[in-house]
Structures are given as structure tokens and as C-alpha cells.
Write a structure and sequence with these properties.
By secondary structure, the chain is an alpha/beta fold. The chain is about 35% helix and about 15% strand. It has one domain: DsrEFH-like (Hypothetical Protein Ychn, Chain: A). The protein is globular and about 45 Å long.
Length: about 160
């Protein structure tokens, strides 16, 4: 990309609502790619996306095998014992071959690059998750309204994952 500001693209705001391994990596790669292009990026973790920033859960994220049309397998097959673990191992192996860091390291890289990481207040309250349960690199807890306020500048794009 040439100059992002010249093209009017200044900030990428991503909303992560599901912590399946494939969604988390898609979100993180998009946020990281934005930073590499000189574009600001922010991630708002809401509902089940919060698992990607919970200290006790982020290392155990899985690939969704049931009801995932991109798996190209019947739903019943995806639900067989061991299928989710097998698919997860395969994806993690491929990510490692491409030198893509594990989720915890990727969060540290994103934070260090300037990506803002936000937890959703409503979802935290609803699931009774405490701030202490979340990663240290979290920039804070926002309401949906506060998140939208951060998206008001011209050149800001929002993406729901």
C-alpha cells in the first residue's frame, strides 16, 4: 500500500466475537498487517472472543470443526471424538511452519507494535470475568459506545470477525 493517509485509510478497528483459532489468527494477522502498513489498529474482544485474552484460556483455543463449511466435511464427522484436536494440531503446525507465533506471543507483538487491545465491559460483566483474568497487555475495558467513539475519525474502518 502506498501512503495509507493519502488513501484516506488511517485506522482499522476489529471486533473479535469468537475465539476459535482460525478467527483469532485472522483478526491478529489483519491487525498486524495494518500496523506494518502504517495504519493504526485496535481490537475489541467481545462475547466468546474474550477467551483470546483470558490468561487461563488463550493457549487452549481450538479450530471449529462442527458446522464450519470451510472444513469441507460433514458436520457429523467434525463432531467425532478427536477431530477438533486433530484439526487444531494441524493448523498450529502450519502456523509454526510459517513462523506465525502462538496466540500469547502474538498478543505481545501486537501490543508492542501499538495495536490497542480492548475488552468489552458488557461481555465481561455477563460472563463474570474479572480484569485480573485478562492479559496484562490489555489497554482497558470499554463499553460499546466508548469503542464506537474511538471509531469516529475519518479514515477509520470497522471489521467484525
Amino acid at each position: 500500500m502506498d501512503n495509507p493517509e493519502k488513501n484516506g485509510f488511517k485506522k482499522m478497528m476489529l471486533i473479535l466475537s469468537k475465539a476459535t483459532l482460525e478467527n483469532v489468527y485472522a483478526c491478529f494477522i489483519l491487525a498486524n498487517g495494518a500496523r506494518m502498513e502504517g495504519i493504526e489498529s485496535e481490537i475489541f474482544f467481545t462475547f466468546f472472543g474474550l477467551e483470546a485474552i483470558q490468561k487461563k484460556k488463550l493457549k487452549d483455543l481450538h479450530v471449529a470443526t462442527v458446522g464450519n463449511p470451510a472444513m469441507h466435511m460433514p458436520t457429523m464427522l467434525g463432531g467425532l471424538p478427536g477431530m477438533e484436536a486433530l484439526a487444531t494440531r494441524m493448523i498450529k503446525s502450519e502456523m509454526e511452519k510459517l513462523d506465525i507465533p502462538p496466540v500469547d506471543e502474538f498478543l505481545e507483538i501486537l501490543s508492542a507494535s501499538g495495536t490497542k487491545l480492548w475488552g468489552c465491559k458488557l461481555a465481561l460483566d455477563m460472563f463474570k470475568i474479572k480484569k485480573e483474568d485478562l492479559i496484562d497487555d490489555l489497554d482497558g475495558i470499554l463499553t460499546v459506545g466508548e469503542f464506537y467513539e474511538r471509531a469516529q475519525d475519518e479514515g477509520t474502518h470497522l471489521m467484525f470477525i
